[in-house]
Amino acid sequence: MNAENKNSVVKVIGASSLGTLIEWYDFYIFGSLATIIGSKLFPSDAGASALINTLAIFAAGFIVRPFGALVFGRLGDLIGRKYTFLLTLVLMGGSTFLIGLIPSYESIGYAAPILVLILRLVQGLALGGEYGGAATYVAEHAPKGKRGFFTSWIQTTATLGLFISLGVIVMTKNMLGNDVFADWGWRVPFLLSILLVVVSIYIRMKMHESPEFSRLKSEGKVSKNPLKESFSKKENFKMVLLALFGAAMGQGVIWYTGQFYAQSFIENTCMVDFNDSRYILLWAIAFGTPFFVVFGALSDKIGRKWIMLTGMLLGVLFYRPIYQNFLDSTDYATFEKTELKSAGTPVVVSQLADNGKDSTITTTTLKTLNSGATYKEIKTQTIFADSSPAVEKVLLKEKTLDNGTFWKFVMLVFFQVLLVTMVYGPIAAFLVELFPTKIRYTSMSLPYHIGNGVFGGLVPFIATLIISYPGSTPLSGLWYPIGIAAICFIIGTIYLSNNTHKR
């Protein structure tokens, strides 16, 4: 590759990656703030159902991604890659900005979650069209034998978008303080996205159409009906199904378990402090992100198949031991018997129940262990006016980790992110090489967004829902991603070819 062509490809990767990174940033702010957003969208007494309902709204954006893939994939194969994913960027940025302006439940009632749901659906449709366009665009500029390396830079954008969203959230919270952030400060990361979108639109306006699509257009060979050609022809439809069940759905659950569910589990199940849970993920992502490019480049040499399938298999084998370690390391009620160093002055609050007769006494005590870890012990005693036996509940929350445990958690999440890079780094090149140029945008987008968006995107919601059922354990939710990854590993082992990288 001469210097001029290399410089052109670098510009293509840069412009495509920046826009895609911003779209992922927009998409993931919501999930990173699910607990706070849930308290604003639903009644104050909704309890755990507020988080589940908020995760359902979050999941809705994933469910519609395949429809976005069909709509914008068709446009991309008809009118070109450039203008299609320019449109998706505008839709994503506008929706994210408007979510930051939606009034709370206290102001407009259930209209608040309904409006946010609508905007999440628009986000999902836009992202459904963005990824396929960016991956196709970069792949069609990449030199032969380098697709894995060049498209892996696009693959970094999803994780970097999550990284930036977490960083902006933590900085905003630290600058404004806990109370202000919980009140209105959570809106700031949504509103800031409009600035990033404007910059990306300016850059993308200067991009040229991909050379392969331009050649097809000049030769009059552009598909007249990409949807029909993609899904009515038996051979092509077979490749769509193989891409979904042999690669994309396993990749999806590994991605969302290793990053989103890991952070949600540490914060909501282990009750670790807000900042600690996010710093853990930030460090893990920082260590893991370069491996997208490592595994993307490696797939150019040895093939995509076994790199992706190995990542799935390791997830199946190690998820439960890792998450059991999270639980054991934050079981402060057990540690308290031998490791309690000090306890602060209890804060006691007494109030009448809604019926005006029963009363509740809440005692909050800040405790410190010998290791330096801290936590709040919250005892709630309900005293009934009819002389029924009092009910006492104890909750340990806002746990901070000692230094050793913190870095152990970072390494455990880093290992999960490493699996993400194995399954995700090579997959763009893998999907691009399965389908002919004239229907590539449509054909690759659908299996990717069903696998990644539906199977993967539902991990936080389904896993959280499973552990809410009577008789479940905190680890029960892991059976969903483990089961999907295991099925995908078996299908991929039997039916996938390892030679697509040679095309």
Automatic annotation (TrEMBL):
InterPro entries: MFS_dom, MFS_sugar_transport-like, MFS_trans_sf, Sugar_transporter_CS. Residues 12-501 form the Major facilitator superfamily (MFS) profile domain. Its main location: membrane. GO terms for molecular function: transmembrane transporter activity. The chain crosses the membrane at residues 12-38, 50-72, 84-102, 108-128, 149-172, 184-203, 239-258, 278-299, 306-323, 406-432, 453-472, 478-497. Coiled coil: none annotated. Keywords: Cell membrane, Membrane, Transmembrane, Transmembrane helix, Transport. One of its GO terms (cellular component) is plasma membrane. Pfam families: Sugar_tr. It is found in: Cell membrane. The keyword Transport applies. It is a multi-pass membrane protein. This is MHS family MFS transporter. It comes from Taishania pollutisoli.
